[in-house]
Amino acid sequence: MALFGRRGSAATPLDGVDAVLADLDGVVYAGPGPLPYAIESLNAAGETRRLGYITNNASRTDASVAGHLRELGLEAQADDVVTSPQAAMRLLATRIAPGSTVLVVGGEGLVVEVEKAGFVVTRSAEDAPAAVVQGFAPEVGWAQLAEAAYALKLPEEDGGIPWIATNTDWTIPQARGIAPGNGTLVSAVHTAVGRLATVAGKPETPIFEEAVARFGAQQPLFLGDRLDTDILGANRAGIPSALVLTGIDRPKQVLAAPAGSQPTFILGDLRELSEPYPEAVVRGNGVTVGRATVRIEGADIHIVSEGDRQVDLLRAGAHAIWHSGRAIYGFRVPERLYADPFHRP
Predict the structure, then answer these.
(1) Cβ distance 124 to 92 under 8 Å?
(2) pLDDT of 43-64, one tens digit each?
(3) From 188, 204, 243, 277, which residue has the greatest number of CB atoms within 10 Å?
């Protein structure tokens, strides 16, 4: 059951919200540059509510992330940024003794948090580490992955050491397109040792719980671009969410979203945070959102009216499919329903 209730359907997504918690890659920026309308929309939202940032990207420190956000035009300090390495340290502290040696696979963002938590960093399995912590960094290569595999050769139940991954995102948006994420690197180690990592970041709940506690949020809204990490994690934490179509997941994935990964709101871009969110009106087997209407007849989804906004057509189609009790592969879906004019990273 959700901890935070949904607001009225005639309201904007921001009405009643006291803290906006935003993912970064694919929501605020892609690579070094900002995404269209993100900065001005977040600044406007932050005039009357707290802004916080939650990121699974473990390659940078909270201070460097905040510096980047300031360069883009947002007012952000290190304490406004909740990172997956910080969540990993919360987990690690429950698994090993204070001051233990930890094998780090990752970059500065992870190293700094390990040291801040009072652990000793090593890069070699020969130093008998008490745990392995793995996070994304562009410089991670075969040598670091091999050291992790050497350290993790024994299963934990047979006396092996804990293995914590900051996150398992398969991809990461970059200025040039979509690149492999930490999940691919964690999978490489898993393939070598036959073990599964404990995951600290999204879609697990500790990173959301840390953000809600840190910002004192009573009615938060989480903004994300991925259904399998951002939206699933927010749902698990009982936080209303908005999927913005400026990152990884596209309209096809939205229509096919399983129950646990369905967002509260679907946004074409962050300008729509402050726009009235149209109610989904259900009449019989038809759903109308704005001026767009779709109808389910057996295995067919028909577009009765395309309306004047593609995002409303997508919202209508998603509502119809999500509330049908059937998975998307049980339908014949017209291509027009998942047309994708939205910004892509």
Answers:
(1) no
(2) 999 999 999 999 988 888 999 9
(3) 243
Give me the catalytic one of 15, 18, 25, 228: 25
Q: What is the mean pLDDT of residues 109-124?
A: 96
CB atoms within 10 A of CB 154: 12
> What angle (nearest 5°) sits at the alpha carbon of residue 175, between those of residues 171 and 180?
20
Identified catalytic residue from 15, 18, 23, 225: 23
Closest by CA to 281, choosing from 266, 296, 291, 268, is 291
How far does CA 171 lie from the centroid of its chain? 11
Would residue 23 show up in a list of annotated catalytic residues for this protein?
yes
Q: How far apart are CA 150 and CA 117, in angstroms?
A: 24
Taking the C-alpha atoms of residue 56 and residue 201, their distance in angstroms, rounded to an integer, is 6
CB count within 10 Å of CB 15 equals 14
What predicted TM-score, i.e. pTM, was given to this entire model?
0.87
Q: 92 pLDDT band (50/70/90 cuts)? A: very high
- 25 annotated active-site: yes
- Say if residue 100 is exposed, middle or buried (CB neighbours under 10 Å; 0-12, 13-18, 19+): middle
Q: What is the mean pLDDT of the chain?
A: 94
Here the tokens at position 164 are: 């914590």
Going from N- to C-terminal start, the domains of the chain cover 19-56+203-274, 85-199, 280-335
Confidence (pLDDT) at 5: 44
